[in-house]
Design brief:
The complex is a heterodimer of chains A (about 220) and B (about 525). Chain A is α+β, with helices and mostly antiparallel strands and about 220 residues long. Chain A has helices at about 40-50, 100-120, 135-145, 160-180, 185-200, 215-220; strands spanning about 5, 10-15, 25, 30-35, 65-70, 90-100, 145, 205-210, 220. Chain A is built from 6 helices and 9 strands; from the N terminus they run ββββαββααβααβαβ. In chain A, strand 3 and strand 4 (about 30-35) form a beta hairpin. In chain A, helix 4 packs antiparallel against helix 5 (about 185-200). The relative contact order of chain A is 0.17. Helix content of chain B is about 25%, strand content about 15%. Chain B starts with 11 loop residues before the first helix and ends in a 6-residue tail after the last helix. The chains are: A alpha+beta (about 220), B alpha+beta (about 525). The interface of A and B includes residues 170 and 176 of A.
């Protein structure tokens, strides 16, 4: 079934970006300057300015496995005998693989990252009608296209469980290296210490931070 | 249709493993081109001395020493190769090895700042323009062993002296006493006065060699040397020759295309690319680590077992995949040695030859299909990484169109020798290691890929950040890459052995990327008639 694989959802959206551009922009001091950028270029600048990894606004959105934004300028001509086709506007492409159902996810996105959503979608056609979580869900559904290929790096359990699993795997590997060759009694004692420290049944923590890409910054102790 | 290579046009190093013809010594001499037109005259003068790949039909045809030549990008430029031809070379070649240091893993202790002075120059402009290398045969004259490399080198120097305005011989190699000889010597390691196939850690080296269409080797060498077909790896049905173009430019490759090569095509055809690397071996660190970790291996011969698990072969060369126990490996090695001696006896019959050849094939006639879990040869062992023999299928038959889909374009011809001697096995210092000479049609797709993905990373083998135990550079360790797991038999009671805190055993001391032209191309270069228009 398209869009859904197990508990994983594959969302692909294409949102048309307004043609043209704004007449002016504000500089750092609030002064008005002429703006020579198109709306598409402004959006691309904003996407490039997004913080990465655990500082990304999308790291705040619950259950995001992997998501990606990019600006689709136009179709590329494939050469004869292909038809030469063009888009009527540029598109913001937003894809996300996440755990759970679409409406819950989009509500979470609005709830945890509405500032980023407004800034990213600001110059998309008809986004001015989005005022709350409900209208955001409606808007995204109108722009959705069917997804049949997924990011395969995830299992389909919740993000918190996956991050806990990765954390435990890493810690258990360290444990195995550190305790090789010990007697059964020593091993059991060390494992008890390991289990007390890593709390395998608590997905809240210690675990990995969503979005972290470097091991040194990844561990979060949790409640 | 089988390809017919013009063996007289291809330089000798490409098709001939000189070591197999009794050439245990080598000398690598490096030059800078100071005057292109004078240097071109030198090339023309050198042409008759360059060894080609024509088959030596008898002992009388084997020269005392061989001579081969290759150029860096900067060298070709200084020699006046037209700019349009220069721009048609693949980018990794024109950048050179130092500029590719992040890809190759020449960081940390491998960084160019740690290289021999000849390579460790400011900036990225290649200091070396031309390499000439001599391989010398073991010859006895009047009861004395003669080092034929000296005579070959003498002859070379005399010729170069006549064109001294053209080129300058570069020094800056770190030698035995920390000195600065004006060349790099290589030599097989001698035991009881006889050359061996050992390297300084004690392993037998240079066993596997790719077999490709037109290479001129005996057809039985396709076993273990060709590409896997899915058939029985002990027989010819299990292997097929690789396409010529994986190793020789101007010929069809495994993608069914001509490899990327410079223009004009006649300048590229029958040439190839070469990687020269000098690698220092930390013998003391290696021995100490093996001794320390062997405490985790139960039973007798723990250090030998662990050493074998690192490489995938016992030190005598027997592959773990076929000979999982030391007893079986020792017995095989004794039989092989006996068969070799008998086959070399004057008047040895065909039966003795066949027996030796049959046993020799055992060294290479295997794959890992019966060892998917790595309980014999670990998944991360050196030979399983650099030549997976189809094991990237992970036991799924029909996973790809061919079992070699992920490996057939990553093969490399190796023509190196050890250098120096280990005078104190309790120290890493000293002048000893291995000179790597790797030949391939695409440095990026073959040498660099193997170096980056299979030696310094483990993802293709489902081993995360683990590296090649022997060659991995663990000096910049940020991601838990200093480990190797030695898989246990899942049906047995022994746990796997986890080797952590692995130091770096091998360090880069310099090198660069070279173009090895055909004899035709050399003639064109000498005459200054390379014409890309």
């Amino acid at each position: 079934m398209p869009n859904i694989a197990g508990n994983a959802y594959g969302l692909t959206t294409l949102c048309p970006i307004k043609n043209g551009g704004p007449p002016h922009r504000l500089d750092e001091d609030g002064a008005t300057l002429p703006d020579n950028r198109s709306f598409g270029a402004i959006l691309r600048d904003r996407l490039e300015d997004l913080p990465c990894d655990e500082r990304s606004p999308m790291a705040r959105v619950p259950n995001t496995y992997l998501c990606r934004f990019f600006v689709l300028d136009d179709l590329i001509y494939q050469g004869k005998p292909a038809e030469e086709d063009h888009l009527k506007s540029k598109y913001l492409v937003f894809t996300s693989n996440f755990h759970g159902d679409l409406e819950t996810y989009l509500h979470g996105m609005w709830e945890h990252a509405a500032d980023a959503v407004r800034r990213i979608w600001e110059h998309c056609v008809a986004f001015d009608r989005v005022t709350d979580a409900g209208s955001f869900v409606d808007y995204i559904k109108k722009c959705q296209v069917e997804t049949t290929f997924y990011f395969m790096g995830s299992t389909d359990v919740s993000l918190a469980e996956q991050l806990k699993g990765l954390y435990l795997k890493q810690e258990f590997s360290k444990f195995a290296f550190a305790n090789q060759g010990k007697s059964a009694a020593e091993l059991q004692a060390a494992f008890a210490e390991f289990a007390a420290r890593t709390r395998p049944d608590n997905v809240q923590g210690p675990t990995w931070r969503p979005g972290a890409s470097q091991l040194k910054d990844a561990v979060v102790e949790g409640p | 249709m089988s390809n017919k290579l013009d063996l007289r046009d291809v330089q000798g190093s490409l098709l001939k493993a000189y070591g197999r013809y009794g050439f245990p010594k080598s000398r690598y001499v490096f030059y800078r081109v100071n005057d292109g037109s004078q240097a071109r005259k030198l090339i023309t003068a050198l042409l008759p001395l360059i060894t080609n790949s024509a088959v030596w039909k008898g002992p009388e045809q084997i020269p005392d020493s061989t001579l081969n030549i290759a150029f860096t990008y900067e060298g070709l430029k200084q020699l006046g190769v037209p700019e349009k031809s220069l721009h048609s070379f693949p980018p990794e070649f024109s950048m050179g090895m130092k500029a590719r240091r992040d890809i190759v893993g020449d960081v940390g202790v491998n960084a160019p700042a740690c290289w021999d002075p000849i390579w460790n120059t400011d900036g990225l402009v290649q200091p070396v323009h031309m390499i000439l290398w001599i391989n010398g045969r073991l010859v006895e004259r009047d009861g004395q062993q003669v080092n034929t490399v000296d005579a070959g080198y003498q002859r070379l120097c005399e010729l170069v002296a006549k064109h001294s305005a053209g080129v300058e011989q570069l020094s800056g190699h770190v030698g035995d006493e920390g000195d600065d000889p004006s060349y790099q010597d290589g030599s097989a390691i001698y035991v009881n006065g006889m050359p061996t196939a050992k390297e300084h850690f004690g392993y037998t080296d240079g066993i596997s060699e790719p077999y490709f269409d037109g290479c001129g080797s005996h057809s039985s060498r396709v076993i273990g040397g060709g590409k896997p077909t899915g058939g029985d790896p002990k027989t010819k049905a299990g292997w097929a020759p690789l396409a010529t173009g994986e190793f020789v430019l101007g010929h069809r490759d495994e993608a069914g295309e001509y490899p990327a090569a410079p223009i004009p095509s006649v300048f590229a055809k029958n040439g190839t690319f070469m990687v020269y690397r000098k690698l220092h071996q930390n013998v003391a660190t290696f021995q100490a680590y093996v001794e320390r970790m062997s405490a985790a291996i139960p039973g007798e011969h723990a250090a030998e077992i662990l050493s074998a698990k690192f490489v995938g072969r016992w030190k005598n060369g027997a592959p773990l995949a076929t000979y999982p126990t030391k007893e079986s490996a020792d017995q095989f090695a004794a039989e092989l040695n006996q068969a070799r001696l008998e086959a070399k006896q004057p008047g040895a019959g065909k039966a003795a030859q066949e027996r030796y050849e049959k046993l020799r094939l055992e060294l290479v006639a295997f794959d890992f299909r019966d060892d998917i879990d790595g309980s014999r040869c670990p998944l991360g062992a050196h030979i399983r990484r650099v030549n997976p023999r189809g094991s990237l299928e992970f036991g799924k038959t029909g996973a790809f169109n061919t079992p070699g889909a992920l490996i057939n374009r990553r093969r490399i011809i190796r023509r190196g020798l050890p250098y120096g001697e280990v005078r104190d096995r309790s120290s890493d210092q000293g002048n000893h290691g291995v000179i790597i000479v790797a030949l391939n049609a695409s440095i990026e797709r073959q040498f660099e890929f193997v170096q980056q993905q299979w030696i310094n990373y483990g993802n293709d083998f489902k081993l995360g950040n683990d590296q090649d135990p022997i060659l991995g550079n663990r000096s910049v360790n940020e991601s838990g890459n200093d480990r190797m797991t030695i898989q246990a038999d899942p049906r047995g009671k022994q746990p796997p052995v986890l080797c952590g805190d692995m130091p770096t055993f091998v360090e880069t001391r310099g090198g660069d990327y070279f173009f090895v032209p055909s004899l035709t191309a050399l003639r064109m270069m000498g005459d200054g008639i390379v014409d890309p228009t």
